[in-house]
Amino acid sequence: MTAELVRGQNHPLPGTRLEVRVSAAQPVVAGVTLSDDRRKVRGTSWVAHPGAPTLPGLEVSRQAAADHRLAVDLDALPDDAHQVNVLLALPVGVAGPASFGAVAAPFVAVTGLDGTEIASYTLTDLTAESAVVALELYRRQGAWKVRAVGQGYAGGLAEMLTDQGLPQAQDLAATINEAVAQGLARSVAPPPPRPADEARVRAAAQGHTAPGNGSPAPQGDPAVPHPVPPAPPQPAPPAPGDAAPAQPGDGGSVDYTHPRRQTSAPPPPPPAVPAAAPGQPAQPVAGDATGWSLEERLYNQVWGMFEDLARTTAAYRSAVDFADSRREQELDKVLSDPRSRIGGAGDAARETARAKHGDLVDQARAALDRDLGQLAAEADVVEPALPPAFADWSSPVWHAYRAPMEIPMAVRLGGLHLPERPDLRIPMLVRLPLERGLWIDSGRSGTDSLADADTLHRLALDSAVAHAARLLAVYPPGEFTVHVIDPAGTGATALAPLVTSGALDEPPAAGAAGTGAVLTRLTQRVDLLQMAVRGGVTSSLPPDLDTGEHLLVVNDFPHGFDDRAVTQLRYLADEGPAVGVHLMMVADREDAREYGPLLDPLWRALLRLTPVPDDHLADPWVGHAWTYEPPLAPTGSEVLHHVLAGVGTARRTGSR
């Protein structure tokens, strides 16, 4: 099974004869450098590039192309070569984009000689960079591994080679660029679309291009979290946002295929779709989106549904606003003429204005209902097909739960809907690893709530337990560890499923001493990993260091926390996610008001979620206020206990 890597993640290599396959939307130059045990390139003889495509154990393409296959024989490398760096760069001196931010994210995969994928990586979040270190194959304790790097350089090849310690970096970069410009490395355009895709391409070319940042990006609190898409886009998260919106009154409908959505990987053969009757929309199919794997296709399809719902609702609201404005203008015109204020002429003009308004609103509503009906039909087939990481707790997939072998690309943190169709819920998927911590707000929300403070706090802790259980369940055993701080022991009942199942390595920390010990241990971990990353010596970390993700669940903040503990929490919220340490706060902001603005950075660093449905998630792209629904298990269901029991068993035995 292919390991789909995220930045910084590594994976063992089962053999030494490999291929590195590159897929990009634009021609790129592919090359390889060798590094010694100090991560330095000793000279130009350790660089394979289109002008010098072969080295002992290495062969790269002689041309800039949209697709590459690089051959690697690790056993044939020089004895003092400890690392193989796979480089990608945009050609200069030829027509084309100047930065990776202007093209779809490149995709790289390490495969066996038979084409079987071992590990893959999509290089997201590139902006002004024109050169990037995509992967590194490195030797550790006699075994070879691959790591997803994704380190980009705005200064291009020269800056990248200089950073690797090559003294002749400027000259070599100029040689490579000159070879490309002179045609020694002929630039090959991407292959033409397959016949099956031509209709989609034509539809995309004729559609209205939405803003490039299709899904809303988190901008403080509140905001809708956006995914970091595997192939832009998201939004960031941010997200793919290229599907053509249905305009009010244009007779169009939601396009399930999302023709503008791009990924760096060529789409798989389209699934067989039952023929639709003339004039009727095609029957929706789960996974009907581009991507290398079914998981990626479903992920893209879910976010495409989110974007389509946002657009079609925005179009409806815009049409209604236009109808209201037109009616007011016509009524003002009638009233501005004293002769029309009385008598039958004025009444007739007012009735005509109201009738036009009603017709426009009815047309807009009909278009909205049609598109919402199609999206609801799509949701009906997509929801049952979602894997556990994307699925609701009510899904049958959880009843057959087994610990996974690989980390999923995203996790479900709840559902989203709009008031025009409350029963149409879109899964809120957030990419893994988490880019920011979570704040489960136990205070009263912006909507009216009949629950008292104690009930809200209990629901908030139940939500935190459900989130923690899901994160534990979707990571392989040992790859995700949860710590809990409950200073006063008030959360013992809600936390019991985590404790009794064996999903925790240690019981919840209580009292000042327990709280301080956990916070000190995690802040020291963050310090150590940050120093290793910044110093470029991650390979020198202690071999017994747990390299998995860690989550700290903090109950009843700020009760029982002194100033030092508060400072440590702020540090973990700001610096922890970059090195795999995440924070989940169960807190009412009003309870911490005595700290004043001191804690404002803490709240802003966390993604606020509520334990009850609430419309606090703002969408800066189209101005919607999305209603968020927490991912709680169905009332009376034992699914949470069943899944946590499986997690505990897998953690104890190390089995999957």
Overall mean pLDDT: 81
Bin the strand percentage. 15-25%
Biggest pleated sheet: 12 strands, mixed
Assembly category: single chain
Number of strands: 21
Number of helices: 11
Spans of at least 5 consecutive residues with low confidence: 184-273
Tell me roughly what share of residues is in helical segments.
25-40%
Shape: globular
Structural class category? alpha+beta
CA-atom Rg in angstroms: 28 Å
Q: How many angstroms separate the termini? A: 14 Å
How would you characterize the overall build of this protein?
This protein has 656 residues and is an alpha+beta fold. It is built from 11 helices and 21 strands. Strands 1, 2, 3, 4, 5, 6, 7, 8, 9, 10, 11 and 12 form a 12-stranded mixed beta sheet that branches.
Compact description:
With 656 residues, the protein is α+β, with helices and mostly antiparallel strands. The chain has helices at 156-163, 169-181, 198-206, 294-336, 343-382, 453-474, 492-500, 511-535, 563-575, 600-605, 639-653, and strands at residues 3-5, 10-12, 17-35, 47-48, 54-55, 58-59, 65-73, 83-89, 107-111, 117-122, 131-140, 143-153, 410-417, 426-431, 437-441, 480-485, 549-557, 581-587, 606-609, 614-618, 625-629.
